[in-house]
Design goal:
Blueprint (H helix, E strand, L loop, with lengths): L1 H25 L5 H16 L9 H4 L2 H14 L3 H27 L2 H12 L2 H6 L6 H17 L4 H17 L3 H11 L8 H29 L4 H6 L7 H25 L8 H15 L4 H25 L13 H13 L14 H21 L11 H19 L5 H18 L17 H8 L7 H8 L1 H13 L6 E3 L12 E2 L14 E5 L8 H6 L2 H7 L7 H5 L5 E8 L3 E7 L2
Amino acid sequence: MTRLAERALWAVVGAFFAAALFVAATVPYHHTDGLLFGRWSRLIADSGSLSVHAVGPADLQRPLFYVLQGGMWNVFGFSERSGRLLSLLFAVLLAAMLYLLARRVLGTARAGLIAVVVLIAVPDFARDAFAGQTDVPTAGLLAACGVVLWSLPAGGRRAALLILCAAAATLAKPSALPAILGLGLADLVGSREVLVRRFAWGGVPLGIGGLLGIAYEYAVASARGMTLPELLGGTGPDPDEEQLQAAVDFFAAVNEQVRASVVLGGEWLGPYLVVPLFFTLVYVPLRAAGLGQRRCVDVAAPVAAVLSFVLPLIAESQSTLEIGPWNTSRPAALVASLGFLALLALGRDCPEERALSPLWARRLAVWLALPLAAWIVLSPSNTRYLAPAWPALLVLVGASLAMAVAGAEQRRPRLLLAPALLAVLAVVALADFRNLDALGSHPDGSINAFRAVDELGVTGWFDAEDARRAADPALAGELAGVRAELPPDGTVRSTDGRLAFFWPYQLSHERLGGCDSVAAADVFVLITSTLSQLDDDRREALPDDARRNIESGEAGDVAYWEACRDPRLTVTSSQPGAFAVFRVEPR
């Protein structure tokens, strides 16, 4: 029965990546960051050069994916489909490296399989696996660093691959740097007799790779007349410098506001895995301290149960959202959490030789600590920014579940308990299919891929605009409205930076003034969403520029622009709470 359950998990993995391949090949780009930063790829494709003076510092700090994508489009021609498939390759890389890393840590193929299924059960991965963003590539390259470091023998080959992996991860996104440092420190944990050798063939190559990535960042910053901190912070000399700084101030305030609720809520890997996450966070320090397997589980299981109730309640008291796995509005998370709660304690019967060793517990804890701390301090407002910590964290969570399966196999009825735990994990992963590629996104923030599947039927997938409409109705409507009004050589003025992906040379995205600020455009697009993530006190504490950036005032009202007389603005298409497209007519 356990082997049959493992085959079912492999089927879930296969189904996910088959669905991902189909969606990547049929649904165009629609994720915000993939479009915002993807403009750089469009410029590279057209010019054949890096075009570093045509984009902002936030683009320049993460060149790996967008330069690869732009170079591919320069050679083979622009195609959203090929960009999506390139993005999917990094998701496959992450899954493959997690499998190898978990198998190396626990010594079983089952541990690798469970780590991959845990990855699929993470909503951020399901949503962004091939979104044209940089978080998944960063995690995949960091996981590759771990596999190379701990699977290949010390020598020139390993050193060269570590330099390559670390440099590529840094160029994918600078948030990889704490994880690279953490991995180098983690490799120093162990026997002191070979400490110098491990440092020479592990920490040094990782450091060289990270420094090569920073050297690129420094060179680009100098070419643009900014400092390295300005580039890494996403600000600096730029036509939109004030707007960029306002955005930085805004997101800093958002992070401060949500830090406690996000960290305590425990939904770092989504609502389905709160119980295994808390179990792991208790178990690993105990195991790293050298306690026996049975004692570690006997402490971790009840403590995790209490934490999964208490901490989300505290977090919920500081937020307007429903947080934690025990809300009846989330039946899949509720059922899964009950199953995990009942079955994780079986890990106490896991034989010592099949359990996570104290050495690996220490190493992975050290690797996890730095990127986790960086996320908590710098960017807890979005859980996908935790991606640099995924390799260590997902291997540890997968290890907790794999040990529970191994413990269940020591008990009677052997034919039921181990397959039951694997079945719970399979159900969690299948439930997360609803988040695939953020299909069926609505303005209220809800996502349901099954809604998009139902809308498209069989043939709708093969029409790009129908597929985009099912994925993101607001974006599709906005694009259709602009295309209907924009002359071939016309210009667009918009508060939506995503449009620059589609019209990289025709869009003006500077801050709006009065009516005359749109006079030179043929089409004006206004984002009409009024949602704000800040409470009143923190909004008032923002600098004036940052507050104006998120509070458009009367300029954020469609009626304000309709009242313009020079030029005259006429609404040609709109969606309440999303956008309005105006035809601009000179007086």
